[in-house]
């Protein structure tokens, strides 16, 4: 049986300001802050995870907020747009909400679907589309009721410097199906019902520049550690160069940069974000891996305080 990923596990991006990021993704978009930890390789920097009520794979966007980061430039070798999916009937709610909160929006059409396109405070490009697929979120916050809440990822738009090579990896390695072409994009579909539709530019793009407002990597789902090991062999046998398996506490990961310049990760669904704190209170406390606990006081002193708060426009 052909190995296929069910879609996106998570997306990780660079931003500048931690509180502004919390205010946007929790306050405006209504996502749950499911994990507050640090960059294991740079403990002076937060690693913040936002998703649905459980932080389920396919819903998770993560950030490294670095106040002194340079401004990035979105381009080839990056995820150009991260797509969120909302319930059918929620499109006008989201358009009105973003406009009310002074977020400039553009409405566009691609592959017969309407998208609301906007940017976060650092310029990260996002879009919202409504679809039947995907379980409804059980999370409500501020001005976002559960029946209008973001379900998770709809997919992503990949900007490649070598589109046919990126397409080959998506089809031949990750197991996505090429399902259409329209205008400047080819569309691929994974087997899952979230994070499953991926659009890739047809014409090669010039390289982007990493920094605030850009995506660092896109992660694809592996069912478990056994599946993950098979994925690593598969990637290596395809001529790519995967890293060793890395323990990220909440999933295991391998990384490789495909020939279109985009950093791919494959991450395991388990163990998930409730492994080190109760599911009911996830995201409220700073969680550190065991090897950094002895430095907790020093780490906390170096991090700016943040809070999840209801926006004034939503009646705070």
Automatic annotation (TrEMBL):
InterPro entries to which the protein is assigned, alphabetical: Extradiol_RC_dioxygenase (IPR052537), Glyas_Bleomycin-R_OHBP_Dase (IPR029068), Glyas_Fos-R_dOase_dom (IPR004360), VOC_core (IPR037523)
Gene3D superfamilies, per the entry: 2,3-Dihydroxybiphenyl 1,2-Dioxygenase, domain 1 (3.10.180.10)
Protein keywords: Dioxygenase, Oxidoreductase
Keyword Oxidoreductase attached: yes
Domain of life: Bacteria
PANTHER family xrefs: RING-CLEAVING DIOXYGENASE MHQE-RELATED (PTHR36110)
UniProt-recorded name of the protein: Ring-cleaving dioxygenase
């Amino acid at each position: 049986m052909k190995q296929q990923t069910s879609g996106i596990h998570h997306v990780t991006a660079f931003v500048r300001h931690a509180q502004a990021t919390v205010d946007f993704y929790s306050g405006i978009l209504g996502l749950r802050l499911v994990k507050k930890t640090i960059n294991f390789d740079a403990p002076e920097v937060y690693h913040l995870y936002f998703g649905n009520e459980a932080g389920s794979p396919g819903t998770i966007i993560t950030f490294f907020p670095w106040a002194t980061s340079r401004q990035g430039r979105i381009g080839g070798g990056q995820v150009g747009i991260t797509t969120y999916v909302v319930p059918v009937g929620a499109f006008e709610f989201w358009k009105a909400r973003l406009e009310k909160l002074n977020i400039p929006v553009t409405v566009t059409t691609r592959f017969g679907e309407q998208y609301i396109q906007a940017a976060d405070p650092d310029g990260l490009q996002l879009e919202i589309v409504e679809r039947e697929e995907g379980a409804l979120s059980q999370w409500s916050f501020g001005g976002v009721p559960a029946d209008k809440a973001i379900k998770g990822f709809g997919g992503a738009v990949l900007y490649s410097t070598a589109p046919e090579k990126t397409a080959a990896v998506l089809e031949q390695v990750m197991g996505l199906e090429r399902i259409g072409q329209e205008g400047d994009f080819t569309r691929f579909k994974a087997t899952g019902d979230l994070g499953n539709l991926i659009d890739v530019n047809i014409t090669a793009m010039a390289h982007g520049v990493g920094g605030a407002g850009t995506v660092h990597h896109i992660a694809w789902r592996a069912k478990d550690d056994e599946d993950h090991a098979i994925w690593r062999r598969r990637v290596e046998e395809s001529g790519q160069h995967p890293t060793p398996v890395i323990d990220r506490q909440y999933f295991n990961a391998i990384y490789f940069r495909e020939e279109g310049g985009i950093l791919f990760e494959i991450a395991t669904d388990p163990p998930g974000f409730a492994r080190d704190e109760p599911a009911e209170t996830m995201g409220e406390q700073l969680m550190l891996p065991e090897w950094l606990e002895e430095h907790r006081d020093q780490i906390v002193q170096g991090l700016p305080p943040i809070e999840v708060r209801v926006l004034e426009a939503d009646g705070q």
